[in-house]
Structure formats: C-alpha cells, structure tokens
Design brief:
Elements (H helix, E strand, L loop, with lengths): L1 E6 L5 H14 L3 E6 L6 H4 L13 H12 L31 H6 L1 E4 L2 E5 L13 H13 L7 E6 L17 E6 L3 H17 L5 E5 L5 H11 L5 E2 L4 H8 L13 H11 L5 H16 L2 H7 L12
Helix pairs in contact: 1-9
Amino acid sequence: MKIAFTGKGGSGKSTLAALFVQHLRSAGHRVLAVDADVNVHLAPLLGVAARAEDALSHPDNARAVRTHLLGGNTRIAGVENFVATTPPGPGSRLVTLDPEDPVLARHAARLDDRAHVLHVGTYEPGDIGSGCYHGHLAILENLLSHLDPAVDGWVVCDMVAGTDAFANSLHAQFDVIVVVAEPTPESVSVARRYRDLAAAAGVADAVAVVGNKVADEVDRDYLERELGVAPIAVLGMQSGLRRARQSGVPPRPEDLDDAAPLARIARHAGSRSMSADRREALMRTLHLRVAGKGWVRAAHGDVTGQLGPAVI
C-alpha cells in the first residue's frame, strides 16, 4: 500500500504523516516513510536527521539508486537515460521493504528492522537560481515505480504542499492521497483544487480528505459543505500533541486526544489498492507525454522504447 499526505502548507500534513507512520509501526506493519517535502519536516518528526549527503536527490545517491533499479533492463540504454516516468522492465530490480534490500540498507535511516526513512532532499546553496524542486523529485518517481511493498508493507510519503503532484507522475503513484484540510477558506481551496485536478487526471477515487484542527461541529459542517464530501477522518485541536511538540520530542499517537482517526485512515486506505493494470496504464500515458517533450528528446533521445507492449 502506498499512501501520500498533502494539503496546504501549515495544514498539519507532515505531523499527520508522522503519526500515521507510528500508528502503522505499532500495528506491526513494515513501513517505509518518505519525506518528499522541500521543507523536510517528516524525517525530523520521526527522529531522523536529514543530512544533505544522505538525500535521495544527491547526485551520487540518485545515480546509485538508478544503477540498482536498472539491473539488466535492456530497454533502457543506461543510467543517464532514466527519465522521471521510466518504468520497470525485464531485468529491472525492484525495491522491497526488507531491511536487507540494497537501497534501504545504503540510503535509508533505520528506525527498526521493519521501519525505515528516506528523504528526497531540499534546495542547497549550489541550487540557487539553477533549478526547481521537480528535478529533485524525479528520483522519487523512479523509486516508487520500481517499489514492491508486498502484502503487509506500507509506503507513507509526505509530499510537497499544494498541487505540485500534478506537475509530475506522483499523483498516479499512490493508492491513496490524503489531502489534509483545515476549516479555513484557504485550506479548503487547496483541497478543492486537488480534487478537481485528480478527477481530470483519472485518479479522483484515490483522493480522500482528512479534516484537521477541527474545533467543533460548525468546523466539521463547513468542511463537508465547502468540499461537497465528508472527510474520512477528523482530528481536533489536539492540545496534548501541541504540548508534546513544544517539548521538542517526535509526535506519537498517544499524544493525541483521540487516536481513532489514524485507524480510520488505515481502514480506508486498506480498501483502496489500485490495480497493477490501471497504474501501468496511467504511467504509460504519462511516460508517452514526457517522451514527447523536446528537452527530453534532446537529452535522452526516443525513450518510448522503455515501454513494453501495451496491455489491451
């Protein structure tokens, strides 16, 4: 199961993602947490120092991961020919959540044998004026498309705030995308826009709204009225969580006044697995779109051959 958390900046998406990771760990699941926010909040919320040299997007790390993924896949001319939407093929190596997996062993921080943390990275001084964060996210797209969490495994990703996932393939990479919404016009507008774009992208059923910082029934009714859908779970103002955060310790489910919403999110996600055929069709469409870009053809040539035969 692959689940992502997004929403307006400041909505609490990173904190909720961290709490959800801890909920899954306490339930005995294998978990890979991925911090894909340019602000890099999830890793520290899980007690992990996010060092620049450990970031997935660091050139040395990105090359090492792609070299592993490439394996013996002859549809890809070489590591330099990976684009963000490059799919796995015959001979590719998939990443698993096994603690001995080479990608996890080399690049992930270990919480225990069943839980690991990766972070994509952020802007560094050398990036100033020379690129955008979408370039950093390409290695995450490669990782997700080559990742097999198995039956009991979960990938939990804290994504960039807002609707950036529609600028790349991330919106098609997850079984469930949780949009965290506060009962404010600004937060609701982001959630509404996310749902509209998801419908246009063919993944409307993957999107679920979770209400956060909801003080009362007026707030709850406001979210449902403005979004046209009831949140799958609602969290209150959480004074216990706020006190824990003020003390500087990573948040835990027991810090919540009521941790039941985490179980509701897990139950919802557990019934929403996207079929492999549907995901392949979505990713195929996106890859062909990327392959048609002039800059991609100039840098990599024709990458349509990275696709296998279409499934009819």
